[in-house]
């Protein structure tokens, strides 16, 4: 299993806890990522959003690409997976921009291609927002342009969304960056199977992940493409006892007296039994369905759970923790193992 983590570009991942002690700053992020590559983490994911969807839209959010460029210069080993949304970036210019960052990093850049989901954000910045299937049509074309710019001496293209005429991109990346993408619609899975290198999923149970991997493997074979990599988001809580882990789970999912930003709309969705309400609050509290994988408990229990996901075909965990620096140290020492910790 490879271990990655979400860089806290939003100042945390918990919607119910206002201050997680991990500010959205270059100082915190750079120290965290540099330490992470010393204690066994393979990858960091930098989300790309201009508005903060965790702490409220008025809260700070680091820019993914300027942060990635700076991290490329101050790290040595860790893979830098940076999210990119095609409708926010002209592809030929993006190919040039990303090639430079890959060169700075010595070939450690990878992309997490996100076909957009937040219409209000795009409109607030004056950008076009496509309807669902059109988003994936745009992404497919965008990827063709980026790939051509990365590979060809001069690249010409005429499409529905983009056009280039003998465009030049030099120097090129050290090697073609790995393309990660996620999505559960038919349009998304078709595009990913044909044009991407890795499939990333929201958190879920091992049986569900096994089924999704089997489906994508079949699609990949039909497309005549080589095997993919598979990753999943997950929130981790490691404690010396199950009781202590459950207490931490209760802390991060408890609704404060003053509901956090954005809860009013979510509250309209809450209904049903007390158990259903509790599960829905957990979905709200932690992003990306991070509590569904149940990486919660003693080190032994969490390692068992990781092994279940590995047996299901997963090869990358994209972890969220809070407070991140302290919890990542604990996870590295007690779960990843002393053989790689503090190398």
From TrEMBL:
GO terms for molecular function: alkanesulfonate monooxygenase activity. GO terms for biological process: alkanesulfonate catabolic process. SUPFAM superfamilies: Bacterial luciferase-like. It comes from the Bacteria. Signal peptide: none annotated. Residues 19-315 form the Luciferase-like domain. CDD domains: Alkanesulfonate_monoxygenase (cd01094). InterPro entries: Luciferase-like_dom, Luciferase-like_sf, SsuD_RutA_monooxygenase. Keywords: Flavoprotein, FMN, Monooxygenase, Oxidoreductase. This is Coenzyme F420-dependent N5,N10-methylene tetrahydromethanopterin reductase and related flavin-dependent oxidoreductases sulfonate monooxygenase. It comes from uncultured Sphingomonadaceae bacterium.
């Amino acid at each position: 299993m490879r271990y990655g983590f979400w860089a806290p570009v939003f100042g945390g991942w918990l919607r119910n806890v206002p201050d997680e002690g991990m500010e959205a700053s270059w100082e915190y992020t750079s120290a965290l990522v540099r330490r992470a590559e010393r204690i066994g983490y393979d990858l960091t994911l930098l989300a790309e959003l201009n508005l903060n969807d965790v702490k409220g839209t008025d809260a700070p959010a680091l820019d993914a690409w300027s942060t990635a460029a700076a991290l490329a210069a101050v790290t040595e080993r860790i893979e830098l997976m940076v999210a990119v949304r095609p409708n926010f970036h002209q592809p030929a210019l993006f190919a040039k921009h990303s090639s430079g960052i890959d060169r700075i990093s010595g070939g450690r850049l990878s992309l997490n291609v996100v076909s957009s989901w937040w219409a209000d954000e795009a409109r607030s910045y004056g950008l076009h927002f496509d309807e669902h299937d059109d988003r994936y049509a745009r992404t497919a074309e965008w990827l063709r342009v980026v790939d051509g710019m990365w590979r060809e001496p001069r690249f010409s293209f005429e499409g529905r969304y983009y056009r280039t005429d003998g465009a030049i991109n030099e120097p090129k990346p050290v090697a073609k960056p790995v393309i990660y993408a996620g999505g559960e619609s038919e349009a998304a899975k078709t595009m990913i199977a044909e044009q991407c290198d890795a499939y990333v999923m929201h958190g879920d149970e091992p049986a569900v992940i096994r089924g999704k991997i089997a489906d994508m493997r079949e699609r990949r074979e039909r497309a005549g493409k080589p095997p993919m990599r598979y990753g999943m988001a997950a929130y981790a809580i490691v404690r010396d006892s199950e009781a202590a882990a459950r207490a931490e789970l209760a802390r991060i999912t408890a609704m404060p007296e003053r509901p956090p930003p954005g809860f009013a709309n979510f509250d309209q969705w809450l209904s049903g039994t007390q158990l259903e309400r509790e599960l829905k609050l957990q979905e709200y509290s932690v992003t990306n369905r991070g509590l569904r994988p149940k990486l919660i408990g003693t080190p032994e229990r969490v390692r068992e759970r990781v092994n279940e996901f590995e047996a299901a075909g997963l090869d990358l965990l994209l972890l969220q923790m809070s407070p991140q620096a302290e919890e990542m140290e604990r996870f590295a020492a007690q779960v990843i193992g002393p053989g790689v910790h503090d190398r």
